[in-house]
Amino acid sequence: MTELEAGRAQALVPVRSGAALHRYRDVLIALIAFAVLASLPFFTGSKALLDFVIRCSAYGLFATSLNLLVGYTGLTSFGHGMFFGLGAYSFGLIMQKLGLSIPVAFVATLAVTAVIAAVIGAICVRLKDIYFAFVTLAFQMLIHSTILSWASFTGGDQGLRGGIPRPEFLGINLANHVHLYIASCALLILGLLAMRQIAQSPFGYTLRMIRDNAARASFLGIDVWRAKLTVFVLAALFAAMGGMVMALFVSGAYPEFAYWTISGEGIFINMLGGVSTFLGPMVGTVLLLLLNDTVTRFTEYHGIVLGVVILFFALGLRKGLLDFVAEWFSQRRDAGEGR
Amino acid sequence: MTRTRTPGISRRSTLALMGAGAMSVAAPWVARAQAKTVKIGMPTILSGRVAQLGTSSRNAVMLEVDKVNAAGGLAGRQIEMVVRDSKGQPQEAARVARELVNTDGCELLLDGEASSGSFAVHEVARDLGVLCIHTCSEASSLTADPKQHIPNAFRCVRQGIHDSIVGGSYAAAISKAKGLKKWATCSPDYAYGRDTTGEFTLYLKRFAPDVEVISESWPKLFQPDYTEVVTKILQAKPQALYSCLWGGDLTSYIDQANIYAMFTQMEVFAVNMADYTALTVVKNLPKGIHSGNRYIKTYPSTPENAAWGDAYKAKYNEYPTNWSWQNATAVMFLAEAAKKANSTDGKKLAEVLAGLTIKCPFGADGTVTMRGDDHTLVGYAIGWGTTIPQEPYVPEVKAGDWKTIFELEAEWKKSKGYT
């Protein structure tokens, strides 16, 4: 991975000079992507396709936010799923118990997540490598256990029951499938764009420096702890956004959303798609969900199939799909220039 | 200038691959025209710890569906089952249920999910308006809580509260006869375990007021080692023990407690013992464990029930489970409702189903009823008995009294604020 990253770091030097230009390009790509996704319902009546994109939004936001930690900062979190669950539960509980409007509940959920992530992050980001991974996992299990045992508030292992109310706001009715679909796409595109901006900003490059050599970053006057904590909280916010999309999709929140298996899926998605490109996790999400949905249609032994796929990526390609493609293209280009 | 081909995949084969990929991706999303058969979708748990129960649900459904199809189908339409694994994850259960209806064109749903998954499928039924029969979730709130109530969802499952009322009165009678005053409990630490144990002791004390619970243990769900739990109970020296451990947890608990000869030192009431998945797996099944009936082919002791159990065994080479009879009953309800409504339309079926009584091998009096006001199954065979180490495992079962159940259930609903 280090070779790959070194290669990219070199390629990125000229990019910095045209940062503003690239920012416009990113916005343009985002607009086009949104236009394409939003026009889908006009071409197809397939509700399953829309469901698929909604789930991709939820998992995509979650996995890409995890990549901010894993790929950009070198913080391998095993407990990132807790913020996915936290987002789903906070949003569901606020809507059920307080009956606020959806945008207010959305912002309130982000605020709650930010506070909790700041507290957990302040403890975790002091640690490195496996210690960081395991303490995040421990916090995840703590949150999961809290959800299970605080049954009077969270519904325990049966989850938030009775459906999440979705009052209309600004003419948007999230109980309508197409409205929910467009709102999910908008959240996905906005979230990805925001994360892209973070990754390409000077702060994003600081994170890469911390990943490659934290001691050097520290000597250059960067407050490493603060930078790590900031990205930890930011990543938690985007994961919570994913959780909210999932809560709206299933109209509830369940303890499984905060279980370690969700974090595991996030890591797996990153492995599938690749961590050295920004869109790697998004590709991984589409790949994993496609695999999951098609394989479960045909067999209940999906575990074997997914396991073989992991082995193929881990032992065969030794990198994620988008990493592989990016490398293949650059090799082709280099070969072309050499001739 | 000559061009040499770079090694790797050619453009043409890449295009072909992409085309093939697009086809395989798009194929399931192309909605199919309504066929003459009626498709019934069933999300259930076919992998992981409780896969055995999900498989036994599918088996029972297929056994009954074959009979219905041989007799002409649902209102003249042959049934085609689409059973899919949810892995026991609620978000997967919701996705699979939506996919079954939206993509596969299923017109009815049998929800073979437990616990949280059933609530997720319930929301899908609320959203899509499709007729849904829950066949595995014993959580009472699914139908007792009026907030959950929707006109198109039914529950064809035994219920925790019914088991507790019958168990409590049975245990109280034995307590009085044998003078069992000091009780201990040992149940899995999650909603089902806590609720069921709480309700059992509530009714035990109601029928036998001088009973006292002196020790409580809450092992984790799927805990592998019960040594500390067993020794804790032995030290407390209770006269009787209640447990609602189930499946693999119950069998490993019994195997481990056997080492300490626990079952000779106290009366044991294990509500989930009399299920073939537990009875046939325990290495040395102790004599005299009190248990509620989950499914055994000797209770109700009718030829219909015995014949059903044997037919299942003959087809699948194992005995049915508690989930099996519930799923089979759901198909029987659908068949009868379709006959009455002369239609497979979900709305018409739902109207007929509410309050419908059908003949059924698993009924306490040969019939079971889908109660109209809360859309839940009542009148099924429910009772308690004691085990012996070989078949028929539970030779005599004392039947529960449905009149008492209805009275106490109504009281319980009021206390929960459901009515």
Q: What does this 3D model show about the protein?
A:
- Chain A has 339 residues and is mainly α.
- Chain A has helices at residues 2-17, 19-43, 47-73, 81-98, 102-124, 129-149, 151-154, 177-200, 202-212, 214-219, 224-250, 260-273, 280-298, 302-317, 321-338.
- In chain A, helix 12 (260-273) packs across helix 13 (280-298).
- Chain A starts with a helix and ends with a helix.
- The mean pLDDT of chain A is 86.
- Chain B is α/β, with parallel strands linked by helices.
- In chain B, strands 2-1-3-4-5 form a five-stranded parallel sheet, with helices on both faces.
- In chain B, helix 6 crosses helix 7, helix 6 packs across helix 15 (402-415) and helix 13 (322-341) crosses helix 14 (346-353).
- The radius of gyration of chain B is 24 Å and the shape is globular.
- Residues 27-34 of chain B have low confidence and may be disordered.
- The A-B interface holds A 44-49, 51, 55, 148, 151, 156-159, 161-163, 175, 246, 249-252, 254-257, 261, 290, 293-294, 296-297, 300-303, 328, 332, 335 and B 6, 8, 24-25, 28-31, 46-47, 51, 84-85, 87, 89-92, 94-96, 98-99, 102-103, 115-116, 119-120, 122-123, 126-127, 139, 141, 145, 147-148, 190-192, 194.
Question: Which pair has the most extensive contact?
Answer: A-B, 40 and 42 residues
Would you identify the regions of chain B where 5 or more consecutive residues have pLDDT less than 50?
A: 27-34
Task: Please report the distance between the alpha carbons of the first and last residues of chain B.
Answer: 88 Å
Tell me what portion of residues of chain B adopts beta-strand conformation: 15-25%
- Total strands of chain B: the figure is 16
Helix content of chain B: 40-55%
Structural class of chain A: mainly alpha
Largest sheet of chain B: 5 strands, parallel
Keywords:
heterodimer; A: 339 residues; 15 helices; 79% helix; 0% strand; B: 419 residues; alpha/beta
